[in-house]
């Protein structure tokens, strides 16, 4: 029996954490809360179709020793954005990884940078990558560009299940993604493939 495209597809759910999505979060992305329902729907579709789901979360040490230089000032040795074990590092309510789904911790924009993501995806036979989450010009874009650099034959960014600080920033980044052959379908278009 032939393997379906969906069995060779991974949905990367990126940074759907409280520090990014709660208005009180230290790195709040204004457009983020509006895509939570679409991200939940993307996860539901991926589960229903048998795709591999990777929950990509950002975590840092409270000292900031593993954070980008430009953000180190946000860490005081006792707290900081998405510090491991804090409420801000937790996924938003109702986004819960199920047994068998992969949770990947990253400390930079790209889910591929200094992680074993490529190894895990290759091990389970992934050829198609779909990306959902926040935020489009940073972690979404870096992850999608790195998927292209790793030669995945099909990379998509779900246009209505990703967000940025503004619609204009989001649209500009989707335009740039399309220029390097990254498709930007809506969630419904992706689900009907």
Automatic annotation (TrEMBL):
Pfam families noted in UniProt: Isochorismatase
Coiled coil: none
Gene3D superfamilies named among the record's database cross-references: Isochorismatase-like
Stored InterPro entries: Isochorismatase-like_dom, Isochorismatase-like_sf
Domain Isochorismatase-like: 9-179
Protein family: Belongs to the isochorismatase family.
Name by which UniProt lists this protein: Isochorismatase-like domain-containing protein
């Amino acid at each position: 029996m032939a393997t379906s495209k969906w069995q060779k597809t991974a949905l990367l759910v990126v940074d759907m954490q409280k520090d990014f999505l709660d208005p009180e979060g230290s790195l709040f992305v204004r457009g983020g809360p509006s895509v939570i329902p679409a991200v939940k729907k993307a996860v539901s579709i991926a589960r229903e179709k048998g795709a591999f789901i990777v929950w990509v979360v950002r975590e840092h040490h409270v000292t900031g020793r593993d954070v980008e230089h430009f953000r180190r000032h946000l860490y005081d040795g006792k707290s900081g954005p998405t510090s491991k074990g804090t409420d801000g590092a937790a996924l938003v309510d109702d986004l819960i990884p199920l047994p068998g789904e992969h949770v990947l911790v990253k400390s930079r924009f790209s889910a591929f940078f200094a992680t074993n993501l490529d190894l895990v995806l290759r091990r389970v036979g992934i050829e198609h990558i779909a990306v959902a989450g926040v935020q489009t010009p940073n972690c979404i874009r870096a992850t999608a560009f790195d998927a292209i650099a790793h030669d995945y034959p099909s990379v998509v960014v779900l246009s209505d299940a990703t967000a940025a600080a503004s619609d204009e920033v989001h649209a500009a980044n989707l335009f740039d993604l399309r220029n390097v052959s990254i498709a930007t379908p809506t969630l419904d278009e992706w689900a009907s493939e």
